[in-house]
Structure prediction request, 369 residues.
Amino acid sequence: MSTPGSNDSAALLEVEHLEMWFPVRQGTAGGKRGQVHAVDDVSFAVAEGETLGLVGESGCGKTTLARCVVRLLQPSAGTVRFRGDDITSLGSRALRPYRAKMQIVFQDPRGSLNPRKRVSQIIGAALELDAGGGSKQDRVRKLLDQVGLNPEHASRFPHEFSGGQRQRIGVARALAVNPQLIVLDEPVSALDVSIQAQVINLLDDLQEQLGLSYIFVAHDLSVVRHVSDRIAVMYLGKVVELSAAEELYTRPVHPYTQSLLASIPIADPELSRSRVRQVARGELPSPVDPPPGCRFHTRCPGATDICRQVEPPLTVYPGGHEAACHHPLNVSASDLAGARRSPAASRSAGPDTPTAPGAVAADWTPTGT
Prediction:
């Protein structure tokens, strides 16, 4: 699979048509009633040294996708390749060498650290998987210093730290096995704004020093813009747009992306009051019974009959911008003429790429004055 922003020969991680469905059961007999389509035919690649941002509303499948990538969950279908090796169905023993190469930092720094263990034990347990030089105590102290904590903190328990410090311990634990890819599952969402900046700067410095690749899952679109090279937008289990970070913010192609960007607060009070925010209407549909066609059509004011009947394919526009929309925004006639179906397009999508640009509908729900 070839995706914009990454070369197959240089791809560290490749995800092809990944699916993760959870059974829904009812009654005392536990009969199967349906399936939650948490991740539904998602494809992308991450290059070495790249940061891929993953954004979307709560319940869109971001965290589930992240856990499938590092094999904390067994995908229902699809393929995950790390440096060309298929790790999708490996057992625990065969997967062990890849565990050290792919690490995850969880959203809740308190819940992800064992409250009965000292920091030296938490990080030291990870060091047992890596046969590096030096004593374990010295390596723990070095890791703490690397993430901006005092080596003396090694003897403390997690409850003795602030939220930002606990998150730094989580990062140190991930670094202990010398990973090449770190999945950051909303690593700053539970922290104060000032602490968020410190952790983000730490992650930037570590990436530059160690050549790490990140998958950065977050709700805060401003943070994602700052840290990401490319951004994938998810909606109801599918990737609806994938683009270079700056271009996504200045030229969104999918209406859902535009509605997300319209929700970003503006620091200037006068400008904020004068802005008319174009946000999506209604609630997120049920992932147990997703709507046919484009999954966003139930909330999109620009939806037409084709949107309700045919799933739009992920389409590559000149410059590498990808979006799955029958009526794309911010594209010209020349962009449409040069568009082609993306290799990452869902297998259930229709065959035709867009032929006419869309427009912002007049009935976008206004939330400003």
Observations:
- The chain is about 30% helix and 20% strand.
- Confidence is low (pLDDT under 50) at residues 1-9, 361-369.
- Residues 251-319+326-366 form one domain.
